[in-house]
Amino acid sequence: MSEPILKSNAWPLSTWLSVVSLTFASFALISSELLPMAVLTPMAADLGVTEGAAGQAVTLTAIFAGIAAPTVALIIGRVDRKLINLGLCALVVASNIAVALTADYLVLLAARTLLGIAIGGFFALAGATVVRLVSIQDMGKGMSIVFMGLSAGLVVAPATSTLIGEAFGWRAAFMAAAGAGLLALLLQAICLPSVPAAGATSLSSLVGLLKRRHVRVGLIVGLLFFGGEVCGFTFMRPYLETEGGLDATSIAPVLLVLGLASLLGSAIAGVFADRMLRNGFATTFLVLGIATIGLLSLSASYLAVLAFAAAWGIAIGAGPVMTQTWMGRAAPDQLEGVGGLFLAVIQFGITLGAMAGGIAVDSLGTTAPLFVTATCAFLAAILIVTQRAPDMVSQTPASALAPAE
Q: Where in this chain does the record put each Major facilitator superfamily (MFS) profile domain (predicted)?
């Protein structure tokens, strides 16, 4: 059965600005989440803790993001979503300033829980907010722009934070992240229109979402994608060093190409998500699987490694956009609830992927995590091609899909 091609509408400048303000927010959030990785050694030394303990600042953030994702939608009721977004950005600013100023490890961890709440809340509400800004027909395009901030953060933040930390100290890096959060807050205050709630999310509605087949498929695919991606990416460098025979100088361009390609993947995914969701979704994971097998089989050729790394990056950049759009189409009447479930699954997948990768490396060697990635990718592609693209629920209230004024 062929998929219906939804007609895209031209956006006025005000809509572009409102969506881009969300892009800056996603950039500030992901940059703040990953920041401890870039300054781990000096931060640990200054606080008088081990590097392993300091690294828990990232783990704790991810845990609270997973908890907050479905919870925020349950407790915010019908409060204007613009006010919620502004409050979440304020948490980003407060968290980073608190970390920059504290000398107490426990205070640092408490501040990072605030960041986790902000991440969980923002990305749980992102799909619903974008739909209210641009309509359900352009959800893929809108989410691709928002997720470009996430991809840009993955590419830019670690290197920039390292440079700032080396030049001015690790605390300055957190103050810079606070500045990014403040910029995102100001842009949303100026550019984001009022986004009245289309409805409140209840616990029963969350449970009801799990009864929808397309929602379950989206959650399973999201678990496979994020778990498999993190499993392979976490141990990409050790694999390239041990099996590919590459040194740090040669690995850096590979990771840069992968990061830039993920930015491209986020940028182009919206077109396919809006016009050919199922085919684009399946192709994304097929490309990820093939690229991973390519990295495993042609590591002796440096140009081949660069090419497959680029394909890998495009797929991991497109994956979140495709998955979020699939989930939105599966439950357009419960966008905030399904967004919360989706983000909770993401955080669980990331945790599971990191654990599986560590076990695989210790037991079978550095190639094993990439085999896990390829297997997850092919399973996700097979699952998608056996499904029809989700149809928008006919009983969806018009207010849930109408763009905000």
A: 18-392
